[in-house]
Amino acid sequence: MTRINKYLSEAGFCSRREADRLIEANRVTINDEIPEVGTKVGHNDVVKVDGKEISNQKKRIYLAFHKPVGIVSTTDTKEKDNIVDYIGYPTRLFHVGRLDKDSHGLIIMTNDGDIVNKILRAENMHEKEYLVKVDQRVTNTFLKSLEQGVEILNTMTKPCKTKRVDEFSFKITLTEGMNRQIRRMVNVFGYHVVALKRIRIMHIELDIPSGKYRHLTKYEMEKLEELLEDSKK
Question: Could you say which of 76, 85, 100, 114 is catalytic?
Answer without folding.
Answer: 100
